[in-house]
Protein 1
Amino acid sequence: MTDNKHRSGFVNIVGNPNVGKSTLMNLLVGERISIATFKAQTTRHRIMGILNTPEMQICFSDTPGVLKPNYKLQEQMLQFSESALQDADILLYVTDMVETPDKNQDFLQKVQQLNVPILVLINKIDLSNQQALSAKVEEWHAVIPQAEIFPISALHRFGVDQVLARIKELLPESPAYFDKDTWTDKPARFFVTEIIREKILLYYDKEIPYSVEVVVESFKEQEKLIRIEAVIYVERESQKGIIIGHQGVALKRVSTEARRELERFFGKQIFLQCFVKVDKDWRSSERAMRQYGYDPE
């Protein structure tokens, strides 16, 4: 940056599940904003992380993975991703060496029609070779001719600094949208639910993690301690038993790991109590979508 003009903009991150969007988001922002696990469909909401410097403010937005919805929750997740196409100053479309462009043609057609800078980031290049990468670059050039292509490895941070440098060059001239000490648009309770849900994603198999929603019932912050009560909702009684585990061992492990992560996140001692309740078929419920905050703004 050679001028003294302040630049700000919304840099929205979209792509299919399990291509490393959340890991990339955390690297770009420099904070652990998004859940990043090995499982697909980890991100359910549109999550903003804000990078501030004296001369710029970059508002990164991570979105749920693009997929063909099978139930109400996935419909809402897709709407979060589509909303990111409407207010982007710069769009990052994240793919990888395995994904083919024909996976979500309807969504890509909307991307092709955008009149903002588009950066296609081909992630996980450390798992491939130069010949395959060259073919993949040509494949994406044919699909989105106006896009700039960046091969990266978010896991090894290869190419991420180059992406960030290009974003800074493309940012429009603008005053800051948020106070300079703001680093996300989400409240503290949101990150409590995400951290608990992350531990469930890590420790339970098959459908269980995707049938879970977490709600913070109580968040009481003191000078050196935060007391938190959270409810883990599942869809069926059988799932409740799995979450709790024999003599409560499984739930205790999740609660302990979440507490440790929350203490790192907030920099305070955490007292965390987790309960498990059944909300039958909540993922297909209009009422639950509103109650759990999945209606896009």
Protein 2
Amino acid sequence: MIEGRVFKSTGSWYEVHTSEGKIIQSRLRGKFKQDALKVNNPIAVGDHVILEEEIHGDHTAVIKDIKPRSNYIIRKSTKKTGFAHILASNIDQALLMATLAFPRTSLGFIDRFLVSAESFRIPSIIVFNKSDILEEDGFEYAHELQELYESLGYQTAFVSVLENEGMDEILDMLKGKTTLIAGHSGVGKSSLMNRLIPGLEQSIGDVSTFANKGTHTTTFAEMFEVEKDTYLIDTPGIKELGLYDMQMSEIGHYFPEMRALIGACKFHNCTHTNEPACAVLEAIEQGDIAPSRFNSYLSMLEDHDNRR
């Protein structure tokens, strides 16, 4: 038996790297038990797996078992109702790449990603790219967002991958960790990876001037070694990040500013929407909780109601 880690998944074959430096193309044979998880990808990039080499194969192997995951980040499946898709497993942090123009990343999307990561206790970094195309008012707005999210405990960076600005800061954030990188198509994920990993040459898609949206260039999740003990997991561009298997009463717990007020509301089952003596609503009135964050929270509650 051989132990290794999944670096790439193409749906049917998995590229597994061993500690000895070997790369083995591996596959599943038959059904794979996944406990209570209803997912359409039983093996995810980042998984530590046990292999058995195929006797008659061309240096291929069969995945016999998966070692327990320390964590994973997941979203609703876009292909199968009621199922989920694991973006990556065994990660130390998640890096969300966002842009405030061409294309514009909505604050709702940013907050959904942060909530999803919080639900799995995965620290998050927000990187705002394309500073080179922002006008003066755009800079002011970007720094307001930086101040907001840093006040909530999130690391942020403001960079221009095109101009090679801010790359050292990003590399320092990544050192010694396995990081999932995510974001809408067109925000510069592939360009960032090409900067950090010379010779990688990830394909880069154009941004449509009509729809102001990027084209998908990454089809499957894949992990890359930036330097020793530093890994980046690239994911396909995410259009929507549907929260999976989260109770309505839990959502507020994954907003740090709301979590700090747990127990302060008059009612223990307060939804923070219209109840009297609600500490969260009072904090909003006093300006201690940003309206954009509360709107994101309400949007998530609405999505939860629509699923029932």
Protein 3
Amino acid sequence: MPRRNSLLARLCLLALLLCGGVCRPAIASMAFIDSQIAAHPGETGIYVLDTGEQALLARAWLADHARHAIEVQYFIWSSDNIGILASEALLRAAERGVKVRVIVDDLMIDAPDKSLLALARHPGVEIRIYNPKHQVGTPLHRRALNVLTDFRGVNQRMHDKTFIVDGKVAITGGRNMADEYFDYDSEYTFRDRDALVVGDAAQAMRANFDAFWASKLSVPVESLYDGWGLMKKNVKVDDAEAQQVYRELHAYARKPENFAPDVRAAIDDAPAAFERLAREMAWGRVEFIHDAPGKNGKRWSLGGGGKSSAALAKLVAGARESIVIQSPYLVMSDNAKALFRKAVARGVKVRILTNSLASTDNMQAFSGYRSQRKQLLKMGLDIREYKPDPANRAMLMSRANPPATPPVFALHAKSMVVDGRIAYIGTFNFDPRSENLNTEVGVIVHHAGLAQQLQATMEADMRPENSWSAADSPDRYVPMTKRGQVRLWQLLPLKPLL
């Protein structure tokens, strides 16, 4: 199981930096957050979590200080270090009386059957699986049958990522619950981004969670294992087995090599960070955009669009001066290409950062981008490709003791800034899958100061020391074998699924 002890000093240092050098846990609490909401009626406060350390500390502190409810919605939940520690944090919250509800997409969930059932048996925890056609409770033959009889259904996934506490404070953005999204993986890690929101947008996020919770696509995990014959896995967990799973989770979290006391101390001290954070928050109008469960009304075709696609298209259509985008995958549909052609024609400068062949984690998606890269450049788009070893990697990871061989870096942040005034941070990739198949979420922030800060961060990632120009043939920096692999993927008719 991947672990990294060097995280200790980094998190402790970050906590001290966030606290301004003096941590006073009693000063800032959920009551302090309540006071900030009261001081900004009808508004949302937003703070960008641009590093894995910040995102980890924020989630851990919020889980430990929730008073009433935690709602969690994720596309990926792994059984690695981060996934196990996140599960244990939610279990501890439930044990002190917090109501915990979790929705996880079925496609890439990675959890032992008995552990998943044991957590769902806890009286304070409810777990639902979105569109369960692949993994949870599904035997291999049943999965194959689902692909043959409901191809669109098995490809329609919940890509939402939200973490909501007491309906007042929430986090959304690109990060899943797995090591590589929080600087925990020593071989491969993501340059990602989240937004912490307080106030109105958090309430909208909770309402969307409730809509997914009520959807027939979200199925209680217990019902997925009580099958008969060959239709479902037959897995049972009794009370003794459930208690054993709880003890093992707590024991794992207590081990210094997994979650050291220094890290816990940093998290305990983090409340004072929220006092400074509140001073740095941008308050104003923030729209939470989202799709409906199922994405759209299509049942056989792979198109159809969605609410999030329409909201982002409206931003692009309204741009007058500039559009700056970060997206790990860049595969434009015909509609998207037409939208950006019009933007360029009216004088809008469009700059996009995506992954290079050297950094990408998704060869299939890159093959779609590679097939249209020349066309996109001819349209007048300024495209940059992220290096696997960007110069700002050390700064983003904030390592106190960097390893001899740094991990490969890849872009996973999904953000856009329009005219230096409006910012988007969320889960939407600029590809057909996000446009038509996967449900997506995000926040549109109408605040020029935050938008300009975010744009400066994105422009820094685009500098020559961090990215290559797509016009300079960056594929030449990878071995011929990898170039051959992506050419083979280009031959397949995959575009609607990318």
